[in-house]
Amino acid sequence: MNKQAEAGLPVLYTFRRCPYAMRARMALAYSQINVELREVVLREMPAAMLACSPKATVPVLVLTDGTVLEESRDIIDWALSENDPEDWMPEAGSAEYSTAMHLIEENDCVFKDQLDRYKYAERYPEHPVEYYRSQGEDFLEQLDARLGRGSWLLGGRMTVADVAIFPFVRQFAHVDKPWFDQVSWPCLHQWLDRLLQSELFVSVMLKYPQWQEGDAPTRFP
């Protein structure tokens, strides 16, 4: 049951191409939670956003009771606690839950750093770009092996693990798409293509104009 408050909408500050914001938008759309979307430009963070979240990163979700969620994983957890019609979130304490949390943690704390160094290799001249790319390959090979045992990271159904990790794999692939396309990760390629072509992902990637103070509210999804 969707427990979203009827009076007013939560406010989501987001940036279309940010992988953290992508996964938050996907969770909110999946959970059928309407929000007021405010698309921001990273070099021009609006004062209204900074007033509620001085850390100046997206996404930020301001709930109707004034609670501020400043991390995408917190936004995902909140959305799924409100409405999780296809059981994306495994049961707490289960082996499936432990696996999902481990994969997401490795993505967020290890792979994301490797991805940044690969994408912005010119900022890290200590090693060539191929060195940083090879570091990220270990995680992708792990994902490909898991996907060889099922269509999704935890087996036969899509879960929070897929949604939380997918935007970062997408970003890694686009650093050097010709190279990525020729690597023999058949299961990973199929999984990535399936998510890229999904109605859910396509729907959350619609372009919105930069939000300005005083603009009429934009309802999402």
Would you kindly provide a brief summary of this structure?
The chain has 221 residues and is α+β, with helices and mostly antiparallel strands. It contains 9 helices and 5 strands.
What does this structure look like?
With 221 residues, this protein is an alpha+beta fold. The chain has two domains: 11-87 and 202-220, Glutaredoxin; 95-199, Glutathione S-transferase Yfyf (Class Pi), Chain A, domain 2. 51% of the residues lie in helices and 7% in strands. The protein is built from nine helices and five strands, in the order βαβαββαααααααβ. It has helices spanning 19-30, 47-52, 72-82, 95-119, 129-147, 160-175, 177-182, 186-196, 199-204, and strands at residues 11-14, 35-39, 60-62, 68-69, 219-220. The protein has a five-stranded mixed beta sheet. Helix 1 links the parallel strand 1 (11-14) and strand 2. Helix 1 runs parallel beside helix 3 and helix 4 runs parallel beside helix 6 (160-175). It is globular, with a radius of gyration of 18 Å. It starts with 10 loop residues before the first strand and ends with a strand.
